[in-house]
């Protein structure tokens, strides 16, 4: 896509020279010889950058006209990059406008290479910023649609990484499809199961949960399918299994990868026929149950080892929902932390920075525990970084990988000053340059 620049200058020779300069560098350029014409053109169409003079009346050198024009452009488009063309007499005024958000100032007569370098950098950053803005708007629309049309069961999310998962989950929730939720421990797989049930035809039916990973292998079959009195030593009375309890509703099998092979065989039969026998019984029971399963294990590796049945995997995995670890959805960290606060205390800026930089090996569950502990330990009304108890967990810390959005936002906030932008992110100047090079952000 070709960029378009607007030059506003009362000197038509300046406009002509800049048009030629940009034309030979594949940049579309238009000109306006007065502030009024320039503002009218900005209202009529979109531009990616403005280069404006600071004076438009003969024998005027104060720069006040340029200042007024700058603020009028800002009122039309707060994000549009603006380069000021200034004589040395207006340098102080240009510096003042830089503090108010002007992108750069170029002294007359300008150097073509310096002007082109500034323009290209600003066009790239503006294009990226516009893309991110569109992405955020689209995310908000899709998020609002989900929140208005579906019951999210109190789920807190603000990171775009969660959107495809939740859109798929709400889409398949109303079906009878078996769903396998994969993801690390503590990431919130049970919350996704609750969302599936809340938006299904089974929302008012039994919802039975079983943590297969917490049960001894010898008791799993009895837990799932029930046991009759006398089936084994200690079975003094008959007990209903979870499948029978979930009849007509939903059974959530967490940590399904821990189910022993004998239990897997019986589970496969239930999924195929709806039939099973309680432990110690020859009487066949028939149920209708929707099974939602979850695991933190790699079931394909388990199949290769022979510890998980491939046919069962395909039965359970009609739809797979992969829940990202908390480290892969950093925009969820602070909203979740606020969600877990129950005492009315607030998180300091330092605490929030530490929360965002921590690796969260224990995922959402660890975050909840950290916030709960911090509320108890914080003496004042504000939770400080030291209250979080994360400083001693150095082994769980990682070198925070900043996104291209982090870098560009910091540069925008500090008007392109690399030193200040780097400091705001806790980086050295050299580390900031390395990340700029990585993302193709020109210096």
UniProtKB/TrEMBL annotation:
Gene Ontology molecular functions: ATP binding; kinase activity; sequence-specific DNA binding
Domain Response regulatory residues, every copy: 4-123
GO biological process assignments: phosphorelay signal transduction system; regulation of DNA-templated transcription
Residue positions, PTM 4-aspartylphosphate: 53
CDD domains: AAA
Ranges in coiled-coil conformation: none
InterPro entries: AAA+_ATPase, AAA_lid_NorR, CheY-like_superfamily, Homeodomain-like_sf, HTH_Fis, P-loop_NTPase, Sig_transdc_resp-reg_receiver, Sigma_54_int
Every Sigma-54 factor interaction domain range: 155-376
Gene3D superfamilies the UniProt entry points to: 1.10.8.60, 3.40.50.2300, Homeodomain-like, P-loop containing nucleotide triphosphate hydrolases
Protein's name in the database: Histidine kinase
Organism: Pseudoalteromonas rubra
